[in-house]
Amino acid sequence: MSVLLIEPFYGGSHKQLMDLLQEELQEDCVLCTLPAKKWHWKARTSALYFMQTVPTSSNYRILFASSVLNLAELAALRPDLGKLKKVLYFHENQLAYPVQKCQERDFQYGYNQILSWFMPEHKLAHLEKVIGVKRNGDSYQSEGLPGQQESRAVMKTSDAHPESGLCEPQPGLCTTQHEGLPSPPAAPAQAEAPESTNPYQGEDKQWLTFNLSNILSGLDYQQRPLHIAWPHRWEHDKDPETFFKVLMKLKEQDLPFYVSVLGETFSEIPDIFSEAREVLGSSVLHWGYLPSKDDYFRALCTADVVISTAKHEFFGVAMIEAVHCGCYPLCPKALVYPEIFPAEYLYSTPEQLFKRLQNFCKRPDIVRKHLYKGETAGFSWAALGSKFRSLLAAEPREDL
Fold first, then answer.
1. Residue 398: what are its φ and ψ, rounded to 5°?
2. Helix, strand or coil for residue 142?
3. Are 338 and 228 within one domain?
4. Is residue 187 domain-resident?
5. What are phi and psi of 329, to 5 degrees?
6. CA–CA separation, 192 vs 315, rounded Å?
7. Residue 199 lies in a domain
């Protein structure tokens, strides 16, 4: 066992990446996690928790962690882990993450990230030379490295000393479900599923279980109403307000369409969801999180258009997955999207998004005949797997 994987927020794209690495690396890694709950608490305290639960081991060379972990704190609390090579994967930038309310930003989270990947100039120069990163102002961004695969992460590596925190002796998943910082568990416990607060679960079970293909099978493929998918977390940074206001405007004009609102929910759900559910009424085909990946992809395969209204995005796994399932993407002309999607799939304002959807509602056959003009193969494991393995196989060097 040479690779230690640490994920303090084991859910969504964070879980997806860690599971993929564990599956592909198999017995060469151990995964330690905390449940995908109370993100801010995990960002503040997970280093202290993993300091207590990670046994001392001489078997680990590399630590791979998401930036939810305060890497600097863990290295300080556990000097033995500081001798490992470290790879820190950024799913987002906390200094630029949109605040939900008009209030002073809590800079602690962004500060944690800065502490976790700060390196002296000679190390940065080494990165530029050896692993192909490109200087972008005062930061470094990987070119063609695996950071593009999952959350468009700026992948930061420190060859100096990896750190490791792992729930050692046995390979495989080593997790805990504690929210605070209790005594270390006597044995590894299986991670629980992310907490769901979907208000419709149990109120009307059909919204979670019906087969979309059965509903659509009786309608002519080219003539049935446009099917719009929104497969994102039900949180403010995905800007559901803009999305639903556009759909409600379509509804006001009696334009025919269906919508499937997918994605996970957590402790707080923006009010717009309950309002939109009532206004959209019979236009809703699906409303809520689909735990089964097969069901999720099946829903995407029946959709015609996938929409992003995000205000903060490093990559956008859900959009790429939907395109892979045959959806026509419409994304903001901002953030990372212009780097991934050709210009015809981008919009600049909500008004432009409305006009595109208005035309699609009138002629859904045009969307269904369309062949995507971009390229997604470069984001597959087939393209990126060898780069991940190379990154995680490199030995730390004492002169760095």
1. -70, -20
2. strand
3. yes
4. yes
5. -90, 140
6. 26
7. no
Q: How far apart are CA 99 and CA 369, in angstroms?
A: 40
Q: Do the domain assignments include residue 173?
A: yes
Task: Report d(CA 239, CA 275) in Å as an integer.
Answer: 15
Q: Quote the number of domains for the chain.
A: 2
DSSP designation for 189: B
Q: What is the pLDDT of residues 87-123, one digit of tens each?
A: 999 887 777 666 666 556 666 766 676 666 754 454 4
Range of the domain at 325: 206-369
Q: Do residues 222 and 338 both lie within one domain?
A: yes
Whether residue 257 sits in one domain with residue 120: no
Q: Are 384 and 339 members of one domain?
A: no
Q: Helices marked H in the chain — which ranges?
A: 12-25, 39-53, 71-77, 108-117, 121-130, 206-209, 212-216, 240-252, 272-280, 293-302, 317-324, 337-340, 350-362, 364-369, 381-393
Tokens of 116: 């976790």
Structure tokens at 370: 């369309």
Long-range residue pairs from 290-297, CB within 8 A, at least 24 positions apart, any chain: 290/208, 290/262, 291/193, 296/231, 296/262, 297/321, 297/325
Here the CATH number for the domain that contains residue 228 is 3.40.50.2000
pLDDT for the residue 206: 37
Do 37 and 171 sit in the same domain of this protein? yes
One domain, residues 128 and 173: yes
The total of other beta-carbon atoms located within 10 Å of residue 48's CB is 15
For residue 82, what is the DSSP state? G
Domain shared by 51 and 85, yes or no: yes
Are 41 and 116 found together in one domain?
yes
- Block residue for tokens 């994987």: 5
* Domain membership flag for residue 277: yes
198 within 8 A of 265, measured Cβ to Cβ? yes
- CA nearest to 231, candidates 241, 240, 222, 218: 240
pLDDT at 319: 95
Instruction: Tell me which residues of the chain have a pLDDT lower than 50.
Output: 119-120, 122-124, 126-127, 130-133, 135, 137-211, 398-400
Confidence at residue 148, expressed as pLDDT on a 0 to 100 scale = 35
Indicate the pTM of the whole model.
0.64
Residues 270 and 240: their CA atoms lie apart, in Å, by 8
As a whole number of angstroms, the distance between CA 60 and CA 1 comes to: 6
If you search the block for the tokens 């956008």, which residue do you land on? 316
User: Position 256: which residue type?
Assistant: P
Instruction: Say which amino acid occupies 114.
Output: I
